[in-house]
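Cross-posted from the bioinformatics board.
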Amino acid sequence: MSLYSEKVMDHFRNPRNVGVIENPDGVGEVGNAKCGDIMKMYIKVKDGVIEDVKFETFGCGSAIASSSMATEMIKGKPIAEALQLTNKAVTEALDGLPAYKLHCSVLAEQAVQAAIRDYYEKNHIPYDEAMFPACSHCAHEHEDGGEE
Amino acid sequence: MRVYADHAATTKMRASALKAYTDAANEFYGNPSSLHSEGQRAKEVLEDCRARIAALLGANANEIVFTSGGSEADNQALLSAAKWGALKGKKRIVSTAIEHHAVLHTLKKLEKEGYEVVLLPVGADGIVKVADAENAIDDNTCLVSVMLANNEIGTIQPVEEISKICLAKKVPFHTDAVQAVGHMPVNVQALGCDYLALSAHKFGGPRGVGALYARRGAPLYPLIEGGAQEKGKRAGTENLPAIVAMTVALEEAIAELPEVTKRVSAMRDRLIEGLEKVPHCALNGDRVHRLAGNVSFCFEGVEGESLLLYLDDMGVSASSGSACTSGSLDPSHVLLAIGRVHDVAHGSLRLTLDGTNTMEEVEYLLSAVPAVVEKVRSFSPVWRDLQEGKRSFIL
């Protein structure tokens, strides 16, 4: 058995929606280079629908696959629906991730939320804080402690 | 093309060793502890191997204990010296920050048991300073342990100089030579060590077998109880086919060492020179005092695991010290010890060559690695920030 599922390897080898959107309606960046994962998600919104989405990821195979899968799952979806995207759904769509890689799917969920939040703020759209749980930029504990 | 460039992880068994293994399993199946002819024949073969391994290392046969590998040998050396130290009321152990986990984790355990463990730092060159070792050794020190060559960055440590200090101060000295034996000249008299650990699968022998050299008079206690094998220092029926194969592999490795070292170091140098042309990267560890086959780089703006997976797709087997590949949250302790910050240490790549590699394969690596680095950078937000000046280059 290999480390990753065929689905993960497919999304890793052929990432969907990779790249940047010029003048995006929302951008979210989560993670931290110190931990070894950063995800950046760009969205274009029209009539409350995510018309286009692109991502850039610095991270391992599962981080790249999780971001790719998350973009596929929210593309063409109304914002309200995209906000419902969970790390569990991303993991399931990838046919699972190794336990110590689950945080990659959490980052994908957080990246989507961060991009939507940015869109709301840019457009002065009031939103409920509770929809965006505190985004932990680095959930990891390092031996030397703290951030740089 | 498939290029196996992970020889520091393990090597393919030499044909001669594999044949010796199956022949020994067929012919010498007796238990060396048995009195009958089959047993006694096996015993003779075992002792013949011990004498041959000893001769290759400049040791006496009765100073060699066969083990299950390098980790066991390291554990036994450290725990034996520590136990002796406790009897003498000495509970300080000096080692380095870049040791293999077989040493570091054993030291951690000893620390919990009340030993004082001092890990010497290394410079940016990945080499421990002799003066630091000298200053760290006091009257309370029961053991100094310094690896001969590092497994990640290949740097060769000043073991001879440090062992001289230990001899003068009458402190037992251990060296983990797992990466060195079979890849550079190793002689226990020249090194002046009291203990030395080696592992067969690093030089074309089988895995699951290694040896501990313990100088005559050096304290030695068994880790495994249960029989009189190995003069009571290691119970369990001897793994004779593996011991025979290890012996054959080491003889062959040492016989071809001058020729292989020349050829492999030329491949290493070509690889280093070629990879240095990739923008914003750096060689890890000293360029000169390093194993003939070790190439270790950090590439800024990329993460190591994705490099490895894309390289595997291109037919290249390599390794990395990134957190993602280690299964832990922090990148390699060795890269951190030479001063690489986390962000950069995550982007490490280790390519380790041996005599089975060819210059043609090196040329392939020189096309594959830069291509994969460029691909991973093309969608790395860190690389974008570096390019746009939102983040400063470290390398």
